[in-house]
Design brief:
Length: 730
């Protein structure tokens, strides 16, 4: 009977997502960051189309939902009268525990869960009001929680009666749309803690299947009701769904479940329901749980590239791929997808260069397979700009850097050094491209007008090259920058389309210019007469090279006073001017530079926060984790020199620890996978202890002489890591 249930491909679910996206324009701004961008749509992100043609590379947003979605409201059937209260139930449970007679409790559970009507009769706040609004589910959450908290401590026959009742409810023949009482029942059943047990997974799977197959309007209600669940229970629901997906992929006891060929719909159904919780989470500011709590690390162990190619190639054939739901894929897994996609592009570009050379009957040269950048340290920025401009067609080849006059061979170390020095020069305040804001400890684009924005394109290309070549950079951009960088994630074909423009809020400004944002916030909450006391207009002033210039925030803005009635509009236009309009040309050049290298449909999988981690790595250093993952060559971890080394390093200040990491690896940032991903190695150097330590940054290797005592090791190590610029050959 269950198998005869909804066998459709959930086309209504994709309609729901599409409708949400179309209605997004009418929604107020939110503080939570958006995720994905598609051409010609202002906002971005989280759920992709379910059955739309992925080859069109479109992504649909479900980050914000309309306040109401018109749907036919069916008359609710009359409910049985149930008068048991929370206290009555708790008294029954206490009596059963003391007497051993569970009949009253058994009767309550078997009756309550026997049908959807009975579930509503027991847990609906009031039998009379229909509770047809998205803001109030009408569920007595406290009673539900008490009943479920007690359930797992009842005898087995009580627990079995609940599962039997759920099966009866799911087996009912459904005709036409579901009522709000049905949705309430689904919402309550999802919270059943029994579904954490694998023995209940067949029932759980059918519950998820029915929920996934609901209409767009029904999903809309479930999303809004779910955001009212407490943080702890919301996290439990998400973890239960993630566990269900993991154990279906890699069952500990395969015999517990039906064969995979007979239940291919299990994982898609669970993932689609998880998407509803992800949407609910994004509606709350701050979110109930972190976006990383939706990651399923089990997916790190499946064939990710097959998932990626399925997502690209089979969009209109109802073929499921986890890439349709990128919120479930961890940043480590996304990094693997991007790296392999980059490698495939590198190989393809290199092969094409080789074919072109051979077809012209020219002798192939190995250098043609790489992006060879040759620069002088004394003219680093200008040389780099010239090289990248001349070799624009080679940007997707493997990067190799040569410093003129130095004998170092680039096996990765020189590339890291080039990035580090170039970023340091470009972001220096004297260079004038970026302004450093001390209050927020981040850089932002200078709004000064200039004739040539090519250097902003260079910075974008550098960031793209870093992601493309798996290099982490020490760049301190605010989160808003990465949101703009994914607006849209795929460069539009129409060059007249605006790029790098996204919805910005006062919260975004707080992350860059907290003092100014605080002033605007004070303006919004000011209780006096704004027009008379502030005497402001819709006009702003900026200093450019010693000259004060004025800009209207709207037509004739200099003649429109800011009042109590229009101050919200003033603040929004001011924020938009600072973060979008005043720096449009600078950021557009930066955007095109980044995407000239990093153009990939894999970017559609990323949130802005994840792009930041890919570009910058993590600034949090855990030297104890590095100690645990370090490999040794010529030493044992118990050797005296190694014990001295870690005693010294763990006692270093954060600044010295960063210098050590930079000395040994070429970067002071931690990659996406953590310290273990560095593959750090300490080798024994068979040289005099008068020598300083030597590093092979290409291989993240530190060559350490066998110093006789801790004091000598510390002295030589500090000298070595504090004088670590330049490369040579022994």
């Amino acid at each position: 009977g269950l198998e005869r249930g909804a066998k459709n491909q959930f086309s209504t679910f994709s309609n729901f997502i599409t409708t949400i996206n179309q209605k997004k324009e009418g929604i107020g701004n939110r503080n939570s960051p958006t995720q994905l961008v598609i051409p010609n749509i202002k906002n971005v992100r989280d759920l992709p189309p379910i059955c739309l043609d992925v080859r069109q590379k479109q992504r649909i947003s479900i980050d914000t939902l309309p306040q109401e979605l018109k749907a036919p409201i069916l008359p609710e059937p009359s409910l049985p009268i149930r008068t048991k209260t929370v206290k009555d139930f708790q008294d029954d449970v206490e009596k059963a525990k003391s007497s051993g007679d569970w009949k009253a409790v058994h009767d309550f559970y078997s009756t309550t869960f026997d049908s959807f009507l009975e579930i509503n009769a027991a847990f609906k706040k009031d039998n009379n009001p229909p509770f047809n609004t998205i803001e109030d589910s009408g569920i007595n959450a406290k009673f539900v929680n008490v009943v479920y908290d007690a359930l797992l401590n009842t005898p087995q026959d009580v627990q079995k009666s609940v599962l039997k009742g759920i099966i009866n409810g799911l087996l009912q023949e459904w005709k036409g749309p579901r009522t709000k009482d049905d949705l309430r029942a689904y919402c309550i059943l999802l919270q059943n803690p029994q579904f954490s047990n694998t023995s209940t997974y067949v029932i759980y799977a059918h519950l998820l299947r029915q929920i996934a197959a609901l209409t767009e309007a029904d999903h809309h209600f479930l999303v809004h009701w779910s955001k009212k669940i407490s943080q702890r229970r919301f996290k439990q629901l998400v973890d239960r769904l993630l566990q269900f997906i993991s154990l279906r992929l890699f069952p500990a006891k395969p015999e517990e479940f039906p064969p995979m060929v007979k239940c291919t719909w299990w994982i898609p159904s669970a993932t689609k329901v998880l998407a509803l919780f992800n949407a609910a989470n994004s509606l709350v500011s701050p979110p109930l749980i972190s976006y990383t709590d939706f990651y399923n690390s089990t997916l790190d162990h499946i064939d990710l590239m097959e998932e990626y190619h399925n997502w690209q190639c089979y969009g209109n054939s109802h073929r499921f791929s986890f890439c349709q739901y990128p919120f479930i894929i961890s940043i480590a897994a996304k990094k693997v997808i991007i790296q392999r996609d980059s490698e495939q592009q590198m190989i393809s570009i290199a092969r094409q260069s080789l074919v072109d050379k051979v077809s012209r009957r020219q002798k192939p040269d190995m250098n043609m397979l790489f992006l060879n950048v040759k620069v002088r340290r004394t003219h680093l920025v200008s040389d780099s700009l010239d090289e990248l401009a001349r070799k624009r067609a080679d940007l997707k080849k493997k990067l190799k850097v040569t410093f003129v006059g130095e004998a170092g061979l680039d096996m990765g170390g020189l590339t890291k050094e080039w990035f580090l020095l170039l970023i340091r020069q470009i972001f220096h305040p004297d260079y004038g491209m970026f302004a450093y804001h001390k209050d927020s400890h981040c850089h932002w684009f200078s709004s000064f007008k200039c004739d040539n924005y090519s250097e902003f394109r260079l910075v974008g290309a550098l960031m793209g090259l870093a992601v493309y070549n798996s290099i982490t950079l020490d760049i301190r951009f605010p989160p808003c920058c990465y949101k703009k960088l994914l607006s849209p994630p795929i460069v539009p074909c129409d060059h007249n389309t605006l790029v790098g423009i996204c919805d910005v809020t006062l919260g975004d400004l707080f992350q860059i210019m907290p003092e100014l944002a605080h002033g605007l916030s004070e303006l919004l909450s000011y209780e006096g007469n704004v027009e008379e006391d502030f005497y402001s207009t819709f006009q702003v002033f900026q200093e450019e090279f010693g000259v004060i210039k004025s800009y209207n925030l709207k037509p004739n803005g200099d003649k429109i006073p800011v009042t109590n009635q229009n101050r919200k509009e003033y603040v929004q236009l001011y924020v938009d001017f600072l973060l979008n309009k005043s720096i449009y040309k600078q950021f557009a050049a930066f955007y095109y530079g980044f995407h000239s290298v990093c153009a990939s449909y894999a970017l559609l999988l990323l949130r802005p926060e994840e792009v930041e981690i890919l570009v910058c790595g993590s600034p949090e250093l855990d030297m104890s984790a590095l100690q645990r993952s370090t490999q040794y060559e010529g030493y044992q971890k118990t050797d005296l020199t190694i014990r001295y080394f870690w005693d010294v390093v763990l006692g270093f200040s954060l600044d010295l620890q960063k210098k050590l990491l930079h000395f040994a690896t070429g970067s002071d940032r931690v990659p996406v996978g953590g310290m273990a991903d560095l593959n750090f190695k300490i080798s024994k150097s068979e040289t005099s202890t008068n020598w300083l330590p030597v590093a092979h940054t290409c291989f993240n290797q530190l060559c350490l002489p066998p110093y006789k005592n801790k004091k000598e090791l510390k002295q030589k190590l500090i000298i070595g890591i504090s004088n670590a610029e330049g490369f040579g050959l022994e």
